[in-house]
Amino acid sequence: MVAKLDDMPGHLVRRFHQITVAIFHAEMAKLDSDITPVQYAVLATVLENEGIDQATLAGLIAYDRTTIGGVIDRLVQRNWLVREVNGNDRRAHSLRGTVEAKQIIDRIAPGVERAQQVMLQGLAHDEASELMRLLGRAVTAANDLSRAPLRSKPER
């Protein structure tokens, strides 16, 4: 007997991801912004970690190291990020957010928050908390099986 798709966590997580991305884009469109969820994650993380290198950034947002470069290129082209040669390793680049990036993040913050609420609108508050707790546990347990595992910020 073949399992029903609705009984498969991978299928439901994929569908929920599709829905969450659509919700994020809809909220950004209301604010006349075309920023993507990944671009938001990059900008928010760089603004919190000025001078971060590309590989560390990829680890902090659990994004594939080989494709993060394209995201960064687009953000540099939009004048939201500055890429500079790292003073400690000339082969590496440090990333810095621009004034425009900070303004964009501040402007869209209410929409990002609304998106999170819409994503969980079908759940009571305690159910939403429980879902987040369980998703966190499942993600943590399987983190090292990912092609782009989440990594903590290295000690300086």
From TrEMBL:
<protein>
    <submittedName>
        <fullName>Transcriptional regulator</fullName>
    </submittedName>
</protein>
<dbReference type="InterPro" id="IPR039422">
    <property type="entry name" value="MarR/SlyA-like"/>
</dbReference>
<dbReference type="GO" id="GO:0003677">
    <property type="term" value="F:DNA binding"/>
</dbReference>
<dbReference type="Pfam" id="PF01047">
    <property type="entry name" value="MarR"/>
</dbReference>
<dbReference type="GO" id="GO:0003700">
    <property type="term" value="F:DNA-binding transcription factor activity"/>
</dbReference>
<keyword id="KW-0238">DNA-binding</keyword>
<feature type="domain" description="HTH marR-type">
    <location>
        <begin position="1"/>
        <end position="140"/>
    </location>
</feature>
<dbReference type="GO" id="GO:0006950">
    <property type="term" value="P:response to stress"/>
</dbReference>
<dbReference type="InterPro" id="IPR000835">
    <property type="entry name" value="HTH_MarR-typ"/>
</dbReference>
<dbReference type="InterPro" id="IPR036388">
    <property type="entry name" value="WH-like_DNA-bd_sf"/>
</dbReference>
<dbReference type="InterPro" id="IPR036390">
    <property type="entry name" value="WH_DNA-bd_sf"/>
</dbReference>
